[in-house]
Every structure is written in C-alpha cells, then in structure tokens.
User: Fold these one by one.
Assistant:
Number 1:
Amino acid sequence: MNNFINPNLPTGEVEGAWQKTVKHLSNLTSEKKNKFEIIIVGCGLSGSSAAATLAEEGFKIKLITYHDSPRRAHSVSAQGGINAARSLSGEKNKVVIDQLFKDTVLGGDFRAREVSCQRLSELSSSIIDQCVSQGVPFAREYDGTLATRRFGGAVVSRTFYARGQTGQQLLYGAYQALSRQVNLGNIELITKRDVLDLVIVNNIARGVIARNLINGNLETHKAHCVVLATGGYSNVYYLSTNSLKSNATAIWRAHKRGANFANPSFTQIHPTCIPPGGIYQSKLTLMSESLRNDGRIWLPKKIDSKDDPENIPEHERDYFLERQYPKYGNLVPRDVASRRAREICEKGFGIGFGGKGVYLDLQDSIKKDGLEVIKAKYGNLLEMYERIVGEDPTKVPMKIYPAPHYTMGGLWVDYNLMSNIDGLFVLGEANYSVHGANRLGANALLQCLCDGYFISPKTITSWLANNKEIDNRSIDEACKEALNYVDKKIKALLKIKGEKPVDYFHRALGEIMISKCGISRNRNDLKSALEEVEILSNNFYSNLKIPETNSGLNVELEKALRLEDFIELSILMIKDAIEREESCGAHFREEYQTKEGEAKRNDELFSHIAIWKFNSDNNSHIRFSEDLNFKKINLNTRNYK
Amino acid sequence: MKDFISIKFKVWRQISNDSNGSYEEFSLEKVSVKISLLEALDQLNEELISKDIRPITFDHDCREGICGSCGFLVNGQPHGPKKGTTTCQLYMRNFKDNALIILEPWRAKSFPIIQDLSVDRNALDKLIISGGYFSTETGNAPDANLIPISPKKAFSSFETATCIGCGACVAGCKNASSSLFVAAKLAHLGQLPQGINDKKERSKKMRKQMTIEGFGQCSNNLECEAVCPKEISADWISWMNKS
C-alpha cells in the first residue's frame, strides 16, 4: 500500500457540489438492495439514522451495540440544540446557508474540507423537516412555527431545540424510525455486544468480531460492508462529559487493521461543566453552554477568595470574558472560553475544589426577565445542577469548569464518508470530517444526522452498486484469524493477575492527558507525557487485576479491553499534538500564540489534515497529510475581540 | 454535615436468572458525601476486587440521568428516596452516617435478572417496536413549518416524550404494569398533528404487546407516577384509556 489517498472531492463550484455528486452516484433497485447486508456498529444519532434510512430503502441491516437498547446511546445526553440554516423566505436561503457554512469553517479554524462544510449547511434544513415528521417535539413560537435560539460562537439565532434535551428527542426520533424497521423485519437488533475487531477480506471490510457481554462468547458477524458509528474518544481523559462506556475500541481496531486516523489530537474541551468534587468522581456533567446566553461568567478580583459569591460586591467581581471580548462577551467560542478560565484559575483566582472553577451567574437575567422565564428556558438543567451540587443555581451562582467533551479527530474518510479501507464507512463523531480543529456549538447533532439520514445512504448504495461481485472465498479464513486474535488478547489480559483494578490505570492516564495534552499544550510537556504513558502502559500489562467471575459476564474485562486501546490511542494523540507545530482551534500550542495570547495558525506548513497510518510490520506509525484548499472562503484569522 | 461517612450495604447477589440469589452485606468507610451512590458502588467494587470478591453488577452509562440505563431498588424504592431522580443522580449527601442501604434489582416477570442488580428490559423495546412511531419515510419529509403546532401542545407532547425507558414505573407497580410507559409514548405521538391518523391503530398494537410481554394490568395505585424519574403524570393513563 502506498500513502496516496483520494478524498474524492467534487470539482467545480463549492455551492451545490453535493447535489451534482448525488446525480452521478449509482443506485440499485429495492429488490437488489434486499440482497445486501450491512453491519452498522453503534446506535447513536448517526448509527440509528443510517440504519433506519438504509433499511427503509431495502437493505438488510444488522445493528450492533453494547447497550441493551438503542435509546441509551450517548447522543441522548446532548442538551443544547441542532443548527439549521432555514429562512422563511426562499431568497434568504443562500444567506443563511452561507452564514452557517462560514461559521463552521471559521469555528474549525480552517482545518476541515470546505466542500463538506458547505454540504452540511445545505442539508441542515431538511434534517429539521425529517425530525419534525418523526414527531420530535421542538420548541415553538407563539404562532406555532419552530423556535430557535442563539448558541455559543454564533451571532445569529438558528439553533433548534427541545428544552435542554434536544439530543434525547432527536435520538428517540431515530430510534423510533429504526424500531419501525425492526418490526418490518429489515433490521436485526444485536444488543449487548462489544465490537472488538474488524474482518477484512481482499482489502474490503466484510465483518466484525463481537463479544457477547452476557455470556462472554466471541461471535463473527458477516456482511457486504461495515459502518462504524461508534462515537468519540473523550474518555481517554478518564473524566469527561461522555457516558462511561463510550470508547474508541472499534475505530482503534479498524485503525490497526489499516484504516487511517486523522488529526487524533483535535479534542474539544467544553467550557461549562460541573467541576469534580473528589477522587471517586467518575464523570463530569455538562451544563449546556446555552446557559452562557443568560449567565455571566466571573471570578472574584481577590486572589484565593473564600467569600460566598452572594456577598462579593459588584466592584470586586471580574467578568473576565466580557472584559477581554467586549463584542462576544460570554459567547466567545468554546476553546477561547476554556483557555481563559484555565489561565485565570492557574493564577489562583479559581474557586471551589482545588481552585478549579469559575462562577456562572444567572442573577442579572433573572432580574431582567424574571425567574419564571429563566426556569422555563433551562428548567431541567437547573434541577440537574441542584441535584449534583446541592445548591440552587437561581440563588447561588453556579460553579463551572472546562472538561473534555468531544473529539473532532477520528478515522479519516473521503467525501463519501468511506475510510481508506473499501467498504468501511465511518459516521458521526467517529470520523474526521466537518469540524476541523474545533466544532461549532450545536453542529454535532447536525453532522450525525446529515451523515446518517442523507449522505451515507446515498454513498453506501453507490459503493455497493459498483461492487456487486463480492468475493466470498476467503471470508471464513479472515473471520477465524480475527477471532483468534481477539481470543488471545482477552486471554493475555486475564493472565496478568496483578494488583490494581482497571480504573486505577485509567485515572492515571486521564491525569497525564488532561494536564499535558488537554486545553493547552507545549513540546516539553508532550514529550514527557509520551514517556509517562509508556511507563503506564508497562505497569498496566504487568500489574492489572481482572477478577474471576465464573460466568461470561465480566465488566472489568470489558473496561480493560477499552483501556488497552485508549492507552495506544493516547500515544498517537500526543505524537500528533507534537507534530502539529501551530495553534489552531482547540489545539493550542503555547509556543505558537500571538501577543494577545490568541492561537497562531501556520497555514503555510499546516493547512492540511494530518493522517496517521499504522504499520503492522514494525508496530509503528507514519504521518502524511491531505492538503486543504479554500475556494469559497478566504483563509483568515479568527477575531472575536 | 461530615465530609465523609460510613455506609453498610445489603445487596442482592445472583449470578444469573437460572441461579438462586441471596443478600450479602458489605461495609464501606470513607465515603465522600459529594459523590453519587453509583460512585460509592465503584469504590466498593474496587475494594471487592482487591479482596478477590466478585464485584457487584449494576447498569449505568451516562450518569447524568438521561440514558435510562441505571435503576434498582434503593431501600425498597425504585431509584431511591428522592423525587424525580434517577439512581445515578442520587448523592451520598442524601444518606446519614452509618446508614444501611439495601439494593435490589427491579422485580417484574417481564424483566428477567441478568446478574445482581442488572435486569433485562428488552420487553420495553418490544413495546416500541410494536408501534411506537409515526409511519414516515426518511428522506421525503414535508416542510417542518407546514403544520403550525402551538407551544402549549408542543410542550405537552415534549413532557411525555421525556420518558427515558428505565422501567421504574414497572418496578414500582404491584402488578408490574407498563401502562405509564405506553401511555407516555402514545401521548407524545398522539398529541401531535402528524400522529392523528394512526392514533387508534398505534394504541391497539402497543396495548396488545403489553399483554404479550407479560406486563400486568394497571393497578391504579399511581406508584408509577411517584417513582418516575421524569415525573410523567399518571393522568396520561386515563388519557390513553379514554382515547
């Protein structure tokens, strides 16, 4: 294999490129579609929406998930909303599409493909139509039309929402659509399975190895192509806003089998999470950043203040975001908000456990709009905060702090969402596509549904139409090889019989990664992080303890298998962060900043997607790149001042 | 209030649905009042692993009250003593020092035990699969603003759509009925103009499936409403029965 990869980008005008591409994609009759089986791994927004759509068109789908029900996937936790470029009058459509396109490219700091961002923006409106027709109860205006709100990083109001539970409602929409297909016999729902390897036959993805989490048996599942929709890998950091079981195993195993990994170090830190309370803290809860619309962020002007916030007079408060960014104020992009909070806390102004927290204060909005209005807007978020912290946020300012939240990096895919392995499609947070170096708020749900409802059904159909002659000769051999590999891996972990449980190592990995490859990075820290992770890895393989369970069910083994891959992925994340000698979006290298402390891009050397290829012969990685070109929009520097 | 407390756990232990179960007791010291009950169980499990005792199996994932994975009886109550709260959102500050906490799985014919506190809630999915959706095709949806929906109606529909499918309503009911779960789905869809046409058919299918899955008749005790972490009103059951 050489390092040439073809992103299959459309030529010509950026606008309307997707519509032109679709015209040239091949199709199949529904009778023919019936003869193809597709494995979809993951049942979040992108996996569920792809499963429902492909099944509707006639394909036979096997949907595999480690959950007991598709309704539990981590997309359910998304609070804020979904962006869509919609205008009530037709002629304004281009204006709003251009605006969302521009914000997506700028939000990503010019590190995503322009044509993909354009497609996202053009398709966004039909997603709202799709969801409403499924019964998603979006918020409404008094005249009965759909309501919108402003969201972090945006000056326009284009975010559609269902209170603070937009992800839940969108996921249930997709879950119900797929349930209908299960009823019609077009989808086989295979739950409680961890996918542990990919089966490749003659360079085409043809199946997966899964472990039944109830009885511990290993299984092979075969199909004509494979879709990975397995989400992101923020749990590398141990403490993140992700659900506890969210993991990188399926994409990492695909990577080890030859799928290239793009920009692994691009991870987003969310500025508004509830800070940790102690060492057994298992996750960090996100408070939707829509709260930044009505909450003012501040810290006491006095260092190491122990005063109750209600008793700190106005002139002793520093509204640091409003002070530094008069135009955007508390609505600056996520990375800027996170970095400013970390900086000021490291100087000793932070509040709460370990001095890692800032106040988000709703008082002024309550005074202006009234308590009822604020409660109606954020109801469940405020209740959630009170349950966790034990304080009423309408009386006492909330404490918040940045936490790992989303990973822009993922498996490299071409314009058709196919990886460099033929027949391996990657959707949603698992791929690297439109978000560049930083994802715009309310674009995650949008991307998942774009990938699942509109893009992949077209491109997968076309790929299958052009690859009808599927060679089944060596599939059993390939399955056997992968199955043996996984079996050995499991036995090796069980044989260690050390002293420490999985979480001990995971917490240690998280600490290294958050302090040295998190909100802010520099060469020296990254180099030492590399050494520390190597040491941790050795300890893991010599001192891990997995209990005997006398039944197939073994939760500690599940966790160990995930951590093993997180450790390997961490090393690649650090290497990628070292190699990218510039600051862009959420990747902030301290060596590369302006006098004002802003990210300083280096477009001459780094206007590209970093692509990492795994070489199994010598167990090493090579980095190469895909250049990014901008035709519709000029490369310029973000300015939120 | 102390920052750290001691807790005595009495936990139902059962290897699988086919084996017999029994209670086991464990004490746990130095439990921070700032952590959640599930985090206290993590802490206990780490201790058990170090002593070569099989850790306690329980379901969980998002740990922020929205995925619906977690859920067992805490001192006899589904999701524990706090109103409108999932198990994962139950914090140790809600318990006294030296308290005894009894943990048992959901008990219902339709929810076979997987292990310890974990049960199989597949029957709830089967209810949705039987008809809990609109018959829309993907890809050809009409303009979303074509049919206006009043904010009141949209919100009322949303409130029933917030059901997280945890199964507490079934566990709380003496007949192990899934009436509130089904009523919530029927009310979510049936209140929207898109759902008017197949409203009757949907109701018929889902209610038939309740019997097939072995759920009992509504007990009219309103326990389902009392234990629902999303506080969905049992009035929707009457709404379902009338419509």
Number 2:
Amino acid sequence: MASWMVGIDTGGSFTDLIAFDPDTGERRIAKVPSRPDDPSAAVMDALDELFQSGVDPGGIEFLVHGTTVATNAILEGRGARTGLLITRGFRAVYEGRGWSQPAPEDLADPYYVKPTLLAPQSLTEEITERLDYLGNVQTPLDEDDVRRAVASLKGKEVEAVAVNFLFSFRNPEHEERTAAIIAEMAPEWRVSVSSRILPTIREYPRLSTTVIDAFVGRSMQDYLLRLVDRLRVAGIETPQIFLMQSNGGLMRMNVGARYPNQTLLSGPAAGVVSGIELAAVLGRRNLVTFDMGGTSTDISVIRDGRSEETTAGRIAGQDLATPMLAVHTLGAGGGTIAWIGKDGLMKVGPRSAGADPGPACYGRGGELPTVTDANLLLGALGDSSALGGRLRLDRARAEEAVRTGLAEPLGLDVMEAAAGVLKIVNNNMAVELRLALQYRGVDPRDFVLVAFGGAGPLHAGVLAEELQIPAVLVPPNPGLNSALGLLQTQVRHLYLLSDLGLVSDYDPARMNQRFEELRLRAVEDIREEHFELSEAVFRRQVDMRYLHQGYELSVDCPDREMVEADKAGLKARFDELHGTVYGLSAKDEDAEIVTFRLLAEIAVPRLTPPPLEPGEPGVEHAVIGRRPLFDLKRGEFLEAVVLDRGRLLAGNWIDGPAVIEQLDATTVLPESQHATVDPFGNIVIERGENHGS
Amino acid sequence: MDLDPITSEVVLSRLREITASMAHALFHSGYSPILRESQDGTAGLTDGNGRVIMVGGGLQYHSLLYSQAVAGVLERYPAEAMSEGDSFVSNDPYKAGNSHVPDMVVATPAFHEGKVVAFGVSVAHKADVGGLVPGSSGAASREIFHDGILLPPVRFTTAQGVLPEVEAILRNNSRIPDVVLGDLRGQVGATKLGAIRFQELLREYGADTLLGTIDELMTRTTARVRAEIASWPDGEHEAEGFLDHNGVDRSKPVRIHVRAIKAGDRLTLDFSGSAPQTPGPVNTTRVTARAVSTQAVLAASDPSIPMNAGAFEAIEFNLPPGRVMSPEFPATVNHYFPTSHLVYNCVLAAIGKFNPNRAVAPSGLGTGAIAVGYKESRSAGRPTVQYEIMITSLGGTSDHDGAAIVMPVNHFAPGTPVEILETEYPVAVRRYDIWQDSAGAGRWRGGTGFIREYEFQTDCTLTIRSANHQQASWGLNGGASPPNSRTTIQNPDEDPAEVDMLETRPLKAGARLAIFRSGGGGYGDPRERPPELVRQDVEDGYVSREKAREAYGLAED
C-alpha cells in the first residue's frame, strides 16, 4: 500500500497540489483554478486530478492544506457581523489605530482614508471594569453591564464578538468572566478573548488582532467543517490532516477554527519554509527567496538557516500582531501593468491586471501592457509557455498593448519599450531585495537567490547579476513551492504572555511560573490535537528591551527552571543580540523583560525530495527548439536554445542564452550565465564563462 | 536634457533606495526614543548646491530645510575647502534651517573627481540641548538664546573621525549628553551612508547621466506644479486663521493670513497680512513656512508630486521680514509646529478656492505636545519625562469624511499605548475616548476628535505646549467648524478648570489632566448629508441626537 504525502495550497488564481510517495519517490502535481466562492471545491478538483492519476484516497497518509479563506474574508470585507466589548472610556483605542502609519502615498494626501473598523463603534459596547498595570482590580467587573451589552448586541444581530479589556494580559479574570456570561446568554456567538488570542502588552495591536479573529473565525469554521466532510466523503481516512500557519509551522485541522489568524499569510510562509528546507538540503545557510507570481512578489531573507519573525502584519490595512514569518511584498508580478507616470517616465506597477482579464497576450480582454506581455515579445516566454501550452499567448495583442500604451506615447520602438518594462520591474525588485539585505546589514555576495513562483525564474538570473548575488537556485517545481513547503515543516505553536519587569529585579520563581502557565496552554492544544506530550519539543524565550524602547528582541532561555544566576546570561545574550541587530548595545543599562514565549514543536512526516537521475553534461537530449531571446545588456536579440525541464538530468550543463520550459514556470538564462543541474534536480545558475560548447 | 524615460525611472528608484537606507540607518542607530519610536527626524539627499533631491522618513516637509542647511554650511565652508570624511553640524534655525533649536542638522558632502556634487543631509529632534527647561523648548522663552546651545554650522567630523572639541562643547550643553551625542552620531552615519551610496551611483551611471537626470527630474517637477497652477482660473484668494495668543499677552490672537495670487502658471503666496513676529515662542521660521506652504499647494493639487527642489522653485513667496512666519533673529521659534500647522491649513484653504475639486475642510487645530516630569519612573526609579505628541483629525473632503485621529500635514506620528504609559510612568489613563460632536458637521463631516484623560499618581510638573484653545478650525462650502480643542486640569477635590495652551505648572498626586483634541472641519451643507449616514453616526456615537437634529436636520424617528 502506497503512503502518499499531499500538500494542497490555495492561491489567488490557482490551487496547487503536490503529492509524493516517499517509498517509491513517485511525484504527482496538479494545478486547478481556485474557486473563491467555494474554495474547498477547488481543493477537491485538485484531489480528483490526483485520484484520476491512479492514487487511491485511502493511500493518502498525510495531508497539509494552506488556505486563504480567512485572508479573503478580510480582503472582501465578508466576515462575521462583529461586536466588540471594551473597557469603559476607551473607544479611541480602535478608532485611532495606534494613530497613523499610512502607506507612503497617503502621507501627504488630505484625502487619506483610514482602514474600516471591522467592529464598528455602533457594535462596540463599553463595560465598567478596570485593571491596573499590575493586573490588580481597580474597578470590579460590572456583570450587569456585561449582560446589558450582550442583550444590546443580540438586538443588533451580531454573529461574533471580540473582548479586549486593558491589561487583560496581566489578569484574564474579567475577560474570562465576560466570556462566560456571553456563553450563557448567546451560546451561538463565537467569542474571541484577547487574553487567550494574544496576551501581550500594547492594547491596540492586541485589540485589532482579536477583532480579526472574531471577524474571520466563523468563515474558517464553516469552511473547515465543509472541507473535512468532503475529504471524508472522498475516502480520505487519515487523521494526519494539517493546516499551514503564518509562523511556518502546522496545526492539526481540528484546532484550525480555534486559531484562524494563524492561517492569514500562511501561503507566503509556506514558500519560505520550502526555501529553508532547500537551504538545509544543500548545506547553504543564507538564502533570499524571491517568489514572483501573477500580481506580486514576496521576498524573504533566510539567514543562518532561519527566517525572521514579525508581529507587524497588515492585511488590507488591518493590523495583525500574531507572530509570523517576515515576508516583504511588492506589487511586481507577471500581470503587473506598465504605464506612463505624470512625470513622463515609464512606471511598472503596483497595479496588476490579475488573472482576469490578465495580460493582453492572454486574449481575455486585457488591453494594458504587462510584464508578461514584455516577456513574450522579448522571447523569454514562448507562445505556448503558459501552463504547459494549455493557454496560447497572443503576440499580436501583446505588441498592440505595448505599442499603444508605451512605445508610441514615449517615442520608442516596441522592443525598446518592452525591454524598458523588464529593466524597470527588475530594478524595482532589485531595490527591494537590496534594502531587505541592507536592513539586516548583510552582504549579498554571501547569499543564494532562490527563484519561486511562475515568474520568479524568468527574472532571477538578471536580478542576481544586478545584486551581485553569486548563484540562483531554481527548484524542480518553482511554481508549486508553497504546496511543497506544506510538506517540509512540523507542528508549531507559539504561546506568548507579557509580564513586565526589570531583569535585575525579576524573581526567577515568577519567571518559572509564567513559563509553566504557557506550558499548560501548550499541553491543552497538544492533547486536543491527539499528540503525546512526549512528542513535543519545547523552547523557551523572553522578549527583552532596554527601558523606553518600543520594540523587543527574543532571547533564548535555558531549558530548565530559571535560577538567579541565569539572569546575567540572559542580559548578556540580549546585549549581544541588540549589538548584532542594531549595531550597538548598552551593557551598562538595565533591560526589561516584556513577554515570555514558549515554542512547542512536534515532528510529523516530512518530505525529502528524491534525487534526480544522473546524466552527462550535454543537454542535446532536452532541446526542444530555438528562439530569439532579447539580451537586456546588449540590447539585441540572440539565438537561445529552448530546453524541456522534464528531460534534464543531474549533472547537465547549460550555457546561456537559454530558456528552460516546464508546466509551472519558465527559466531564463542570459548569455552571461550558465547553469548546472544538481543531484536534487535544482537548476543552479551562476555567472560565468561558457563551458559546454 | 532629453530624458530617457526608462533609465530615468531606474535612477529615480535607485535614489529612493538610497534615501530609504539613510532613514533606516537613522532610526536604527539612533539612541533616543524620540528617534527610534517617534521617528522625529529625516535623512535624504541634495545636489551640490543644496537643491533637495529626495527625503527619507515621514516628515516630508523637512525637505526645504535641507537647502538652508547646506546653504548655511557652504557660507562658512566653500565646497573647495571640503574633503572626504567631512560632516558638518548645526542647530541654529536662522543659519541652518532647522525648525527649532532642539532639531540638529547634519550635512555630509559627496564627491566626484574631487568636486562636491551632492550632500547627504539629516534633520532630527534632540531630547535636550540645554536652555530654560528639560527638553529645551520652554513656554517662558523670549529669545532664541533661551532655547539652549546655538551651534553655527561647523565641521564635526573629518576623515580622522569626530572633532573632540566640538563634541566636548555639545556634551557640555545638554542635560543628557550621551543620548544627544548618540543620536547625532546616528545622523552622521546616515548622511555618510547617503554620500557613499550616491558616489557609487555616480560611478555606475556616470556624472552626466546621473546629475543630468536629477536636474531634469527637478525641472519636470517644477513643470508639473506649474501645469497644476495653470489649470486654475487666474485671480486671488485669501484665507486666514488665528493662534490664541503670542505666548506672552494672552489677550492677543495672532493672525495668520495668506493671499494667493495666481496668473498663468505663476503662483505667489503673500503673507504680508499676517501678524508681526511675537515675543513668545510661537513663531515659525520662514524656511519652515515655505516648506509647509508648498506641501499644502501639492496637497490641494496633486500630492503625488515629489517634494524636491523643483516643487519649491515653482512657487513664489512674499514673506516680509518680521512676521510670525518670517521672524528675525533672535526671535524664539521653539513652539513652531502649531503655527506651521495653521500656515498649512490657510494655504490649503486658499488653494482649494482655485481648485475646488481637490478642496478639503481643514484639520482640527490643537497640535503640540505635553511633557510631564516625574521624580521617579515606575520601573527604574529615576527622574523621567513622559512626552506625548498631540494630534487632531482631518477635515471632510469632497467625497468622504475626514480621517479620525491623525497627525495633520504629514500623517505620521506613532502614538504611545496606554498600557506602556501606565507601566512606565506613575500615571493612570482614565479615558481615551472618541469625543462626541467634536467634528465639524457637513455633507462630509470632519474626522472625530478624541479625549485623553490622565490621573497623576505622584506629584509632577506638567508642561502643555499646544495651541488653539480659543480659536477653532473652520468648515468649507457650508460645512461647520469643529469646537475648540480644550485642556482641563482638575486638582483633587476641585472641579476641572480650563487651562491655557502654553502652561507649565506643578501638580499634586491625584490631579487630573484632560485633553480634548478637536475633530476636523466639515465639508458642504450638513443638511445634504444623507439621513442614513447621520443615523449611522448617531448609532456609532460620533454625533449626538441633538446635534443630528440641530446641525443635520435629522427628523426624530
């Protein structure tokens, strides 16, 4: 009996599936259109393709899913009708949204609009209660007030409610009692309690995160119920069914509705995970993942084998402080539109033609020139490059769009204009990548660029040269990297609790007690997910800062009871980390402990891609044609070989100019570069002298 | 020069990269919370003559300040006398263009073939540079010498490093020298980084292409501003507003007046009708006034036009010496922001009359800051100052309500969380609420204002540096004014009492401070606001039933 591992990633345009049988090394892939109205139907469409290829549903042992259901609920504003209970007198916390951090284009525009409140003031109820900064009760919870508020919200047909009281992270009693009253009076509501969702200091990010949980929770719950049902009907019996999280780890699907926020931005996180795995397999410590899709590019920096974490997430203007892998996104994808700015210069993005109507060359009614149109005109893409030829690309339409939209108004010829589109979009991405590296104080020459997404491998070679990154890796299925990443991680839960105090004064017993509280929460989840406690590996950290700083850094704690003598080491590690990250430290200043963190990880089956069959350097066996490819440096067309990725063998050597085509992506190799195929089937592009010919 | 529309876009993007790197370096190597948390500073590039190329950071109005900073440096040190490794520093607003004495400017030249071709420049607020009070900006200040040390533009570093004499002078003139020098080093680092990156870009593109492109980008910016101006009908429009008083005589409002004269593609902003400079600290420098005025012209026409030298060169000014926005040395300018804010609002109003489809009602007045000095912080037990910027809300526009609780001019000001305040300082925040009926009514109303109320748990010293407790903002096209911003203090066992906009006083434990910050002005006749929106406002608590009836004419359901 086969034991298939299946990853299914729902994206904006496509739902991708990748399946492996670790025993035989067999691999299947599927790419089906996403169905935003009923996303689980697209999941089943992808599985149907898998079943039709002969895989038995009962043979699926392990399944991981990356979903955008919660993300879409926010993007489309189609979440639950959400009520909010707050401490009396603090309506401006949400209204003010931490004051204002607008996008650059809004900085000086009096027409600036703040993001919509997901729980409007009309559905916000003030409750008489107050805790002080230590969590002591200043004003007891007025339970009648809670009952009045719930009755009022019931009259307003609320479907979900968020509760966020000041200093609830120090003492959850008022929030818990409030939740209990709500459960009595309105058992049909989903209740999101800030001291459970994000018990950390700073009321606005905690509130915003809690409201998002309430807003998207119902959609997530409904979706998962339907999906689980459909999977069962389809004959998938394994209990090993997981969801991807934005922290790069998994959770068992049965707890998914408990942590819907964890699925927001999980798609990019899965991509990062596959980058980390690639780094591990190849023994590379420093990678930049460059994931260019239809509408945007995601960039992440993996340093010393690890990705950074952020709590400054934002989706459609809504602030999300749930810890997640740090991914920079910019508006540069295949469908990104080129246009002429008011300054008379050619601009590319951030607006995109998306999948519908899409680039002009798709022939679906798009008339504006896009990056894909430029790639087609310049030979990087062939007429049948998209989706393994299932979509014919129309050169005439691409040319017409570039001519009327760019070339004629700017007085350029069509090829010049098309080359301009690529130069500008490449530069935009190079700037973003360089900044991502500069902000971390690292040297691009120590990094490898990993090209993901349908469009990443088209641009990665040129980009690496511009950035002086010495090598580019194109994995076997760059367009399915998020689906692949689903199969390369483990169950991961992160528990946070703020309890502030100076390190020098901090009682180790209090630290141990906080960690124990976190451990109990972890144990509850682990049981709920039907794991054995012994399977879990715990890691303990504290977030620290110098006094008055507005941000913290996470420092590792010993994996045992803390004693007084451990504090000096903690402080020293913090000073050192601060020096590494910000270039200076203040060893003589006391530091403050802000938040305790407990990371619980449980290993689950994990895919190691099988090696590729070895071959000789020559690639004649893989040549499927030749076509003119525009060289951006020389400014002229050169004759390039076109290769079929599926026929490449380990050890093959490819000289530029060349184009390598496959179902999910096209790789471009300029004249100045060559590539080899490594034992895992990755194409490794490097700058260099010709060799093979 | 004939611009290549592709190379130029690439160059533009590379310049943006350099200024973003500079700002990042500034905010991350700086030492103080002012720089790190409030990001009260910028870093960017000018050309060799000090013409602003681009500014990194949220406070875009700093851009014109850079020109004066470089001019001030060049006056003492001709470009030929500069060498690689040099950085120059100053904090004299009359020489270096900084808005007030606590702001320091740093300029670092970039060279090409031995000639100065550009400067990396930074302007950033310092926690204390001496003067009458901690923080340096005292309400009692009557001349600029009261505000602290006045360092003229002087060399601060050479290729050998920091000049120890200058550092010693600075160190000797601050209550917290380590923090100030730490931040200053951050500024030097950011400007050096900018200069180095600019030199690399020069090598990559060649001086002719890079400098030619920059020139042409500025020329095009001027042309864009002029094209906007040319699209308006010729004529003159005026606008005026008032500050409560001059900082000394509380009975005398201070008039801010602008007459905008437009003919063809020329625009002149004439401030000669404004009040004379004041003995108290409410003046703002002419450079700052020009900068925020230019920002207002762009806001009322096309805010996507970049704030480079080309934008400033498109607008003419009549700023006779000795006005409140063009004071003469040694007038103090320490409380410049509310005045600059009002200048901005007036220009926005005047230009809106030329260009009605971009017109907006003004933001609420009452910006500034409070500072509370405590003998002991909660955590470290040391003397400490709680410093909080005060913001308001934006006015209604032609197609939506004003944004609520936003820093006017540049919508950028990170706020301090209640939970952080209470944890660090002996204070309890009793209220942080939306202020009902605080927005000017209109077809599109202003953004709602807010109330923040503090109860001090130990004795402390409170300084309020705000504005416009007596003179409100206004509405547009039939929209209504918002109420005045207000501040009250309530001593234990007493009733709350209204206090002035500029005030320093000791308070006893148990005293309460309430800050009411006004919403924005209303746009259009409130009676034309669709009743369903008014009803929603009532349900949301932004508008009371009485106001809905009286101002909006909403019939009782």
